[in-house]
Amino acid sequence: MNVAIKSIYIIEAVVCFAFPAFAVLVGIVFSPFLLVFGATGSIEMITLLLSLFGGFVGLTGIYDLVLKVLSPQTEKFNAKRTKLCISVGVLAILNPYIWSNEPSTATIFGIVLPLGGALHFIYLCRSYLWQNTANQ
Questions:
Q1: 62, 77, 124, 134: which has the fewest Cβ within 10 Å?
Q2: What distance in Å separates the CA atoms of residue 5 and residue 2, rounded to the nearest whole number?
Q3: Exposed e or buried b for every residue in 108-135, given b needs 16+ CB within 10 A?
């Protein structure tokens, strides 16, 4: 794979996952407040904490996929763990959309771009993610 295609994949990852990464970063900064209000039993704060955790886990799965696309010979990733991380991340992305009554203009940055990017990287790594593990 040449440098131009790798650069395009890096730009795609940055464009698609910058907003969720920023949201997770802000959530980590404000997580002490979420923990305090979540301890009172507020269901909104508990779902925000779960979305924060799921978003972090999902971003680690995307990180694995992007690194696998950029350097296919890397053998340090576990396909089952990556699939689990991506699944948790998709649920974390969809959680605010499910709880909101009316979608906003941030929907494209918060839901459509990350899901589209995740689907594209899953498609690029499909042979790695669904390899036959029966012989291993």
A1: 134
A2: 6
A3: ebbbebbeebbebbbebbeebbeeeeee
Residue with the two structure tokens 């910058």: 18
Contacts of residue 52, Cβ cutoff 8 Å, sequence gap at least 6:
24, 27, 28, 31, 34, 92
CB 21 within 8 A of CB 55: no
Query: CA 62, 64, 66, 72 torsion: positive or negative?
Result: negative
User: What mean pLDDT is predicted for residues 104-115?
Assistant: 78
Residue 85: other Cβ atoms inside 10 A: 22
- The tokens describing 10, both together, are 């890096």
- By C-alpha distance, which of 78, 84, 86 is closest to 136? 78
Q: On the CB side of 36, how many CA atoms lie within 13 Å of its CA?
A: 4
Cβ 92 vs Cβ 55: under 8 Å: yes
Question: Would you list the DSSP string of 53-92?
Answer: HHHHHHHHHHHHHHHHHH-TT-----HHHHHHHHHHHHHH
pTM given for the model: 0.83
